[in-house]
Design goal:
The longest helix is centred in the C-terminal third of the chain and has 11 residues. Among the domains are: 50 residues, no CATH class; 82 residues, RRM (RNA recognition motif) domain (Alpha-Beta Plaits), CATH 3.30.70.330. By secondary structure, the chain is α+β, with helices and mostly antiparallel strands. It binds one DNA strand through β4, β5 and β6. It is found in: Cytoplasm.
Length: 302
DNA sequence: CTTGAGCGG
């Protein structure tokens, strides 16, 4: 047989109707030259009435010589012969459980039809939200006001939470820790003068002490960034602004329903000077495909 | 067009 009579035994030639899309599983490893096209196509004989099938194929061995490989298989009988003795033995075991009512081999796996609803616990209008509104005993009590609301910052009771405290923006003076824990009694006496009494941080000097300078927290150095592209996220903003100095917070407004960016955000700097430099450099700066607007933010309304 | 969500002893 001359070499010029050989056909290429590729799968592509056997399936001309298939498109020329490459399937990664069929990709050849491309180390070395692919000489397989020099070999005769594999020849399949049978299976005959006894289930005997022969495959004759040619390959190059490691030395680069052409070798002929003949594989003879007996289809059904071989399949059975492959089963181990233990596997054959297991076939005679009595069925149990639900399988008792099944045909032999009919079904090994049951398909569950149980419906499982997934919901975001905090989504507006979710069941979790509804039950909270309807059944929360605390919200009913809250109508009377003054229930258990003791501000940690100023120690006042019944008025506001810590986050709403009028003093919350005032930095407490660094002071020694007083090791007696707060009780309802001592908390009520928070503004008192007795020794060893717990005094809430906001009340330890500063807030009520005359002559003491009260430092504002860095909420002041809040920079508003608008005209952000849709896919700008907080890490991106941080990357952009951190070159000007320590950033204490980044925030990108996101539509709660769609998860899309609303195109603006805030960056807070530890130092006012850094914020100022960022504004000067970045306002009008081209970012992604848009021109940023960077300005001082006006304080958020509650 | 365009200034923030959410938590709780």
């Amino acid at each position: 047989m001359g070499i010029d009579t050989l056909q290429r035994p590729s799968s592509a030639s056997q399936k001309p109707s298939q498109s020329n899309k490459v399937r990664w599983g069929e990709l050849e490893e491309d180390d070395g030259e692919d000489l397989n096209f020099l070999l005769p196509p594999p020849l399949v004989i049978g299976p005959d009435e006894n289930g005997v099938k022969k495959v004759i194929e040619y390959k190059f061995n490691d030395e680069g010589n052409k070798v002929k490989i003949t594989t003879t298989t007996r289809i059904r009988k071989l399949a059975k012969a492959r089963l181990s003795k233990r596997a054959l033995e297991r076939r005679s075991w009595p069925k149990f459980g639900d399988a008792v009512h099944e045909d032999v081999g009919a079904r090994l796996t049951m398909v569950s039809t149980e419906e499982i609803l997934l919901e975001r616990p905090r989504a507006p209008g979710s069941k979790a939200e509804e039950t909270k509104v309807a059944g929360d005993p605390l919200s009913a009590l809250g109508k009377g006001g003054a229930v258990l609301m003791v501000c940690r910052t100023c120690g006042k009771k019944g008025d506001h939470w810590t986050s709403k405290c009028p003093y919350k923006d005032l930095a407490p003076q660094p002071e020694g820790f007083i090791d007696k824990p707060a009780t309802s009694e001592t908390t009520a006496a928070a503004s008192g003068t007795s020794k060893g009494t717990y005094v809430p941080p906001g009340a330890r000097g500063g807030a009520e002490r005359p002559g003491q300078e009260m430092r504002r927290r860095n909420e002041e150095n809040s920079v508003r960034v608008t005209n952000l592209s849709e896919d700008t996220r907080e890490p991106d903003l941080l990357e952009l602004f951190r070159t000007f100095g320590a950033v204490s917070r980044v925030y990108v407004a996101v539509d709660q329903k769609t998860g899309m960016s609303r195109g603006f955000g805030f960056v807070n700097f530890v130092n006012k000077e850094d914020a100022e430099r960022a504004i000067n450099k970045l306002n009008g700066y081209g970012y992604d495909n848009l021109i940023l607007r960077v300005e001082w933010a006006t304080p958020r309304a509650n």
